[in-house]
Amino acid sequence: MDFKKFKNLRTEKLLSQEKAAEMLEISDKAIRNWESGNFSPSRLIRDRIVNVFFNGDCCSFFDYFAENTESALDKTDFSAEEQLINSSLENGTLLPIFASPLRQLFNVKNGESVGVSLCSILGALRGYNSGEAMSFILGELASILCAAKDIQINAETGMLVKDLIFRLKRINAINNLPEIEHREIRDTILDLQNLTPKHNSQDYLNAFRRSFSVLCNNSKILCSDSNYAYSISDIFIPLSTVSYSASDRRHLFYALFQCAKNLSVPAKEVKK
How far apart, in whole angstroms, are the C-alpha atoms of residue 115 and residue 55? Predict the structure, then answer.
């Protein structure tokens, strides 16, 4: 059975990894492991998936997670997503500023469009208390880091690494983190400080993956700190273009769409 398809199931229902984990009474880390193909759920958790997502229908469960089953998410027609943007603009639940970045994902022929869309939303997150909004996209960001094979190493990357070190030092000053996490952050900072232009892309990717891991594992504690969103942004801006299928883009669209709607709420309330 292919439990990487749990991402499809979750995306179709507009659920973040955190929310799906809450519904199944498990950790969001477990769901990240399923979706990356590292682990499969236990028999007990499979029964919960059947009850929560398939109304107790075991046949539908097995059909859904069968190997090599083509998903509707693989279609290159984004008309349903375009309609979702338009209806959200009309009812005021999505700010117009987010429409263009989201539509960038529909241009499958432009390899840079994913980066443009992602960086636009991450930039918006910097100015907000981003806890709930960030929860919608952590899973997709983890997938991007996992798939990335190259990273841009230039002067801008060096500046972003320095800023990431600065942000992680400030995050490490938070007193309610477990001591083991403080040690992990200190070790991560050392990895980043040791990077030089002579290091290759894989060295940078490994350091960024470690940075993201410590941020992701402590998201519930750190998400209200403004340095959290800045750190996430520092990690993803220098990523080179990742090859994204229509299915990948659709996954990212729904994650960023939910994030954008969440970011649109405060502005809407202030306007009222």
Answer: 38
d(CA 107, CA 96): 19
Helix ranges (H only) for 13-154 are: 17-24, 28-36, 43-53, 58-64, 79-90, 99-103, 113-125, 131-135, 138-147
In a domain, 21, yes or no: yes
SS3 state at 70: coil
The count of domains in the chain is: 2
Residue holding tokens 């693989």?
74
pLDDT digits (tens, 9 = 90+) for 28-85: 888 888 888 778 888 788 888 988 998 887 767 877 887 654 455 556 789 889 999 9
CATH of the domain at 56: 1.10.260.40
pTM of this structure? 0.67
> Residues 58, 88: one domain?
no
Is the separation of the CB atoms in 94 and 29 below 8 Å?
Answer: no
Percent of the chain with pLDDT over 90: 26
